[in-house]
Design goal:
- Helix content is 33%, strand content 18%.
- It is of the alpha+beta class.
- Helix 6 packs antiparallel against helix 7 and helix 6 packs parallel to helix 8.
- The radius of gyration is 26 Å and the shape is elongated.
Length: 628
């Protein structure tokens, strides 16, 4: 069957299916024309904006040159092959975006024909794939987005035959499966799947818009209605439910969608004004400590990552301080790591003119975000690399990509991350061993993975039991008082049947040390309370209520108060199963205490950086008396 006949049949199939999908008032109607190619993200002639930005800012120039260098290395590489790993083709889809986005960018900024021809070769190879793995639809969405950018940006210089082949693949392997109920459950999802899939398929629709405007508008209107669902999760303060790494994924693709439709239609149909969304850049910036390491709760990596969408938020809000952490990371990180990020060119597209060499520091030292996965983040300084930084999270193991980490905290001082989170384990390493990773029920295998349960987090365990999956921990109070910044969370619901009451507060006191205070009440039986903190430091138990941590020539004293009979301990983080990942260079430090039934127990832990270890400490008041 000829390509044009295939496309005609496909269009009829899509329009028929669309009648029953999201049958509501449309935001985009037939009266709104679109420009010719290129029309996605970077219109014709807008290359001059990027050229101006890289002339005026050394870090942006560094990124530009790194993308060109990475594009040069792609010239000799063989095109991608359809090699699936487990249930995913996702690594190939992501590499497709990276290659095509970089090469297309390089061609538009330099005009060198070698980049055009290499991008064409890559897209033709991907177009020849049997399918883009619709059973794991993220694979389809990302592949479609990469192919759409290349098709659109290179359209006027691609051979006609290549255009036809690439367009047919976008339609058949990208857009068509998005109308199949077997594959489009993400339309009603509250998490990153919705954001990524709607963005990817919408890019496909924008790329081929002139061939069937009605079909394309169906896709775009469907996306505008559907993407509101995950965007509601940013309310009220911008805290992203799935944490740092998935913020980069879900929010990054959400911004790709908003940026594209706003550029073409002059507005984003009210999406960016949804409660909390424009605040989420502040959340992300505060998630990075003075060390440059993120608060990596839930399924997140331990290292910082490129977040190109921060440039969009900065430009949208006219607030360059939102780039404080991002620009420091981009300026100091090596090019190899930077160019591993497939969306890096978007940082230059969204940088706009006039990004100063000296980014102003953010004005506030504390962020608190309420919602279903609340978090409080506080620091003593943005400009001092030795600043004290602490974070506390509430939330629930029932959330998307959750761990049993409600009540968990992190802490930095003197340039060291003393209290850390082990982060996620690579999914395929567990799935390949038949671990039922995505079953979140209380007794599922997911919680037997070491990194996922509360025994491996900076929180509590009672009688070595796991937290309750359906439990919820709200943040109940907070204060940005400079001498006692603090937040309190009620974690009682995570210990139903084990504790009658459990509240945890974290504070930075006197701008110099951190306090973690727990107020507990035991239930009907004798209970052993286990308090743990993951650390990369060397640990020495130095007394009945004290441990000394050392790292990089710095020290931290962990001192416990208010609990007679505590037993200071360390626990290994080495794997004990064949599926758990190794955790080299880390150890758990803390204590256990056995408590009679029906007993109220206050526990206060001081984390004292070296210079404060001998300091006379203020009396720690009950949590209800903490400043609010």
């Amino acid at each position: 069957m000829k390509i044009k006949t295939t496309i005609a049949v496909l269009f009829f199939y899509l329009i028929t299916l669309s009648i029953s999908l999201f049958a509501q008032t449309d935001s985009i109607n037939t009266d709104i024309p679109l420009p010719g190619h290129p029309r996605i993200l970077l219109l014709k002639g807008e290359e001059k904006n990027i050229q101006e930005a890289i002339r005026s800012n050394k870090t942006l120039s560094k990124i530009h040159l790194a993308i060109l260098a990475a594009s040069d290395t792609l010239l000799a590489k063989a095109p991608l092959q359809r090699i699936q790993i487990g249930r995913r083709l996702l690594d190939k889809s992501r590499e497709c975006i990276r290659r095509v986005f970089y090469l297309s960018y390089a061609y538009r900024l330099t005009g060198k024909d070698v980049y055009l021809k290499r991008a064409e070769k890559e897209m033709l190879a991907v177009a020849a794939f049997e399918n883009w793995n619709p059973t794991h639809f993220l694979d389809v969405a990302e592949m479609t987005l990469g192919m759409a950018i290349g098709y659109d940006w290179l359209y006027n210089d691609l051979p006609a035959r290549s255009r036809e082949i690439i367009k047919a693949a976008i339609l058949k392997n990208g857009i068509q499966p998005s109308f199949d109920p077997k594959h489009n459950g993400w339309l009603k999802s509250t998490n990153n799947w919705n954001q990524v899939c709607n963005a990817g398929i919408s890019y496909g629709a924008l790329a081929v818009y002139e061939d069937d405007p009605e079909m394309a508008r169906t896709v775009l209107n469907r996306a505008i209605r559907s993407i509101k669902i995950p965007m509601e999760q940013y309310a009220p303060d911008g805290a992203y439910v799935e944490g740092y790494s998935y913020w980069g994924y879900g929010t990054g693709f959400n911004v790709l969608f908003l940026s594209a439709i706003e550029k073409l239609y002059g507005n984003d149909f009210g999406l960016s004004s949804m409660p909390g969304f424009l605040k989420t850049g502040v959340y992300l910036e505060n998630m990075t400590g003075a060390t440059g390491i993120p608060f990596n709760y839930f399924d997140a990596g331990v290292q910082p990552q490129v977040n190109a969408s921060m440039f969009w938020f900065s430009q949208k809000l006219k607030d360059r301080s939102l780039l404080w952490s991002e620009m420091q990371f981009l300026a100091t990180e090596n090019n190899k790591r930077l160019t591993g990020d497939r969306l890096l060119p978007a940082a230059l597209i969204w940088s706009g003119a006039g990004v100063p060499e000296q980014i102003p520091a953010p004005g506030s030292l504390m962020f608190y975000g309420l919602g279903s996965n609340p978090v409080a983040l506080m620091r003593t300084s943005w400009t001092d690399k030795n600043a004290v930084y602490a974070g506390l999270k509430g939330g629930s193991p029932s959330l998307s990509h959750a761990h049993m980490d409600a009540g968990s905290f992190i802490m930095e001082a003197d340039g060291v991350r003393w209290a850390m989170d082990l982060g996620m384990q690579e999914y395929e390493s567990l799935e390949s061993k038949k671990i039922d990773l995505w079953n979140g029920r209380q007794n599922s295998q997911r919680w037997k993975v070491f990194r996922y349960n509360n025994l491996a987090h900076n929180t509590l365990a009672v009688n070595n039991q796991f937290q309750k999956v359906e439990g919820k921990a709200p943040i109940t109070s907070y204060s940005d008082n400079g001498l006692f910044m603090n937040a309190v969370t009620d974690i009682t619901g995570l210990y139903e049947g084990l504790l009658v009451k459990a509240n945890r507060g974290v504070a930075i006191a006197d701008k110099s040390y951190v306090i973690i205070r727990d107020e507990l009440e035991t239930a009907d039986t004798i209970s052993t309370i286990r308090w743990t903190m993951v650390t990369p430091a060397d640990v020495k138990i130095s007394g009945s209520n004290e441990a000394i941590l050392t790292r990089n020539g710095k020290t931290l004293v962990l001192r416990v108060s208010g609990a007679p009979g505590i037993r200071m301990k360390t626990w290994s983080t080495a794997p004990v199963t064949d599926y758990d990942a190794a955790n080299p260079g880390t150890i758990l430090v803390g204590f256990e205490v056995t408590v009679p039934a029906h007993t109220k127990l206050p526990l206060t832990v001081y984390l004292l950086p070296g210079k404060t270890a001998g300091k006379i400490l203020k009396e720690v008041l009950p949590l209800q008396s903490w400043p609010q």
